[in-house]
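Contributing new records

If you add data, match the layout below exactly. Sequence lines come first and carry their own label; structure lines follow with theirs. Keep one chain per record. Anything else will be rejected by the validation script.
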Amino acid sequence: MPDKDLSVSIVRMDKMNALQGEWEALFEATSASPCASFDWFSNYVSHKQLTENVRVCVVKDSKGTVGIIPLWLKKKFAFGVLPINIATVTGAGWVPESPVLLAERVHGGMPVVQTALEKIYRMGEKWHYCSILVPRTSSVVLNDNRNVTDSPRIVCARKNEPGSIVVELPGSVDEYRKNLSGKSRRKIGQMARGLEQKGEVKLVRLGLDTSESEDKMLRLIEDSITVSRRSWQSKSKKGYAISDPDVQGFFTDVTLSLAKKGMVDLSVLYVRSKPISFDWGVARKGKVSGLKKGYDPEFRQFGPGIVHFARLIEDSIKRGITEIDLGIEFHEAKMRWSRKEHGLCKIRYYSPGLKARYLRWWLNLRGAV
């Protein structure tokens, strides 16, 4: 029997517009990242051209909607030869946390994600494996720790993962500068003076104020793409760059969409009006999460990324922002700004059957579970 306190409905892409109001209402009632918003999801599936394989699970209790879990069902090969069906949270891969939207009232004993996955399985969508990455304090970690049915029997395994680096901002710029080590102050100052010798240095930041014009945002988007093309990211075969041909459209549209609600943070550092560094993130309720950044290697010796972020911190303090999440990659470089981490936990779900059992065995051998 399914969890008796929860019901699940599955919405396909052709019915998605009818879900928008409910999605946005739940989002507004939470402190979730903008990456869990309807705007992010709709832009993502549009540019990825996902139609047939997206299932949005809407989970409710007696008081209303408690969870929206957008899943993308796709085929992969485990061990290089075994075909398996993966259920991936749609829109993941940009921020550390999987964009699962849960109501604040989700409490102990309410396994929302597990119940949604069970519903999909019972409907004939024979997925074998699903994983999500959430804060260690998330209600998903606390609650998805038991089998919610006797049949099908979904197995849940958890493992703590490295956290994202978080910069907690003080109440004033003076306090921030006072807390910097002498070495950091000297390095930032030295690099800033080096850039200033090249010409006027200017930081332009948009997206946090809904009154900003779309034309200004479009110019900043184009300058960010220009910097990305020059950076190492455009040549890397791993991850995403905002200048990648298949990413540019998504980057542009989702940035414009979130800017209308003051939920995007895009900034570019200029020297003599030439863009040399960009920083792109999402923002909500006084917190910023970085998504992508890059700089022009021509200016590498002057540390454009360091100068950019130092100015971004001071500007953030003036705007009342309290926290900047730098993400999970490149820990060593990010620890110059903070040694505080937000712990993360990866939860893996395995469906019934031999394929899922073999996959779990293999991941156990690799120490992944």
